[in-house]
Amino acid sequence: MATRTREQLITPSGEVELAQALDQPMRRLLGRSLRLRSVVAGSCGGCESELFALSNVVFDMARFGVEFVASPRHADGIVITGVVNRNMVEALERTYAAVPDPRIVIAVGACAASGGPFRDSDAIAGIPASIPVDLWIPGCPPHPLTVLDGLLRLLGRLDGRHPAAAPG
Ligand code: SF4
Questions:
Q1: Which domain holds residue 50?
Q2: What is the value of pTM for the model shown?
Q3: Pairing state of beta strands 135-137 and 77-81?
Q4: Burial 69-78 (b: 16+ CB within 10 A, else e)
Q5: Is 116 touching ligand 1 by the criterion CB < 6 Å?
Q6: Helix, coil or strand: residue 105
Q7: Does 107 reside within a domain?
Q8: Does the Cβ of 115 fall within 6 Å of ligand 1?
Q9: Ligand 1: which atom is nearest the Cα of residue 44?
Q10: Using one digit for the tens of pLDDT, what is the confidence trace for 58-89?
Q11: Which one of 13, 47, 107, 116 counts the least CB within 10 Å of its CB?
Q12: Domain total for the chain?
């Protein structure tokens, strides 16, 4: 499940920490209409396949007001996939800078969180500290429902425990 910090992705006790919502002013701004620019930063392509499935008729994230856009100038935030290899750091930073404030950052997949299966490569820079991540979505790749669940929790449109954790 998606979390607000990278540390919360690690669950040694098995206790899952569900993502908390953005603060009230941000929810008022973004809760009904969220435009996201995808930044593919050294990915195998698996994470994007699942992300773009969110726009099909099965998952249809547009019904929640969430859509991908072509330009960061039109976006409320960015979605980062891939390990962020050294050659992509500048492009990522420039894309982030082009998104008007206030903006959010969502890191999708094991590669974005830790380098994933490529974590020992010298080519990896990781997400720069100058880009604060608001939501970490785990998986290799994450299921579209995991992404949707995290997004809706971040926007304050879904709360409570994960259904799998409910008693009986
Ligand atoms: S997390 Fe997995 S699916 Fe996503 S880019 Fe990395 S290797 Fe590919």
A1: 21-157
A2: 0.94
A3: unpaired
A4: eeebeebbbb
A5: yes
A6: strand
A7: yes
A8: no
A9: 8
A10: 999 999 999 999 999 999 999 999 999 999 99
A11: 13
A12: 1
